[in-house]
TrEMBL record:
It is a multi-pass membrane protein. Its main location: membrane. InterPro entries: Cat_transpt (IPR003445), TrkH (IPR004772). This is Trk system potassium uptake protein.
Amino acid sequence: MQFRSIIRIVGLLLALFSVTMLAPALVALIYRDGAGVPFVLTFFFLLLCGAICWFPNRHHRHELKSRDGFLIVVLFWTVLGSAGALPFLLSTYPGLSITDSFFESFSALTTTGATVIVGLDDLPKAILFYRQLLQWFGGMGIIVLAVAILPILGIGGMQLYRAEIPGPVKDSKMTPRIAETAKALWYIYLSLTIACALAFWLAGMTPFDAIGHSFSTIAIGGFSTYDASIGHFDSYAINMITVVFLLISACNYSLHFAAFASGGVHPKYYWRDPEFRAFFAIQALLFLICFLMLLEHHTYDSVYDAFDQALFQTVSISTTAGFTTTGFSDWPLFLPVLLLFSSFIGGCAGSTGGGMKVIRILLLTLQGARELKRLIHPRAVYTIKIGGSALSQRVVDAVWGFFSAYTLVFVVCMLALIATGLDELSAFSAVAATLNNLGPGLGEVSLHFGEINDPAKWVLIISMLFGRLEIFTLLILLTPTFWRS
């Protein structure tokens, strides 16, 4: 394993990450909130650490193997997540403990959106901006890893698209070099962020709130600059803008690339994709169920309010954003539980959404249907097809392996939370909220995670990492085989 090359890359990552500290420092200067010093100190400290890692190893540029790639991907999130905790630790307000600082940082960078901070309305602008920026930075990291890096390592949901499934993504001929692919995705991601910020501003947000919420919306993170989240604005227009951009961001970014590659929007690329069709079918079904249930229970005074709240909460929770406009945990119990389970599906592969991804759920459904047919006709040969093309058994086995590992990690984390003293409902929803990178849960974690004990928070940090790294990437580092030369 090329350890010195890996250390060199980690040093470059730290140096690059240190530059992001200058943005909230500038915000502190503009708003004169006195919160800029922690970010300046963090900038110099991370820059120094990056130089210490990079300089002695600057000439080590050996070709990285698959194992090296796995380790770099894990270090990307763990090292930067830990480094991101420094401004929270150094800031006198809100005065977070070490555990809470790490929790907030990892929650932001993994775009989970679970917070331990109460009183966001009174926080310095620099801290608020930093939380939103971390989510945006993490969201872009997800896209580049999922679409440009993980397929080369042979892992991740995008492998199904780019290696196994002919169709619009493969036909679009994503640029062959990682650097070019990452650059193209940056342009798409940045363009969507700018469009979202402008839409929020035109709908009535201040420029600060518009930029901050565009960061967390495009990253499908869910952090807000207010305790009441999007509900603070009490605006139908802002709710609808959020829904539209969440749906766009929950789609495969390779589809966006294909649709815009020829200089114009081509909806056929989207509709030809089976995962895209399945994603919107799930969204429509969830919305219909929530809307009808809210009408049945007379939860809101008007049909329009019921429509608005049902649409917003359905999209927000099922895409794993976690924005709220109302206490959805106060809805008829069936609906919060239904939406919590929908977060296990999450967004499409190659999106900023969390969960197991729609393509895997689609393949698991097709595999289940095939087994039912085999029970009736044991000697018949059935193949699983996506987009008209048959999938190899290796892909099906990989999806089953992922589902098994996902279930195992979920159960272990839930049992660990119960062992720390959490009740069953809070433990179940907390793991679902962090493993699916969702944010809000039920029970003790329905509003925030500040009241749970420190050991439980560390378990949930690990759960966030497992969810963001799609289980196997982190799990493989725990096997003895990985470390054998």
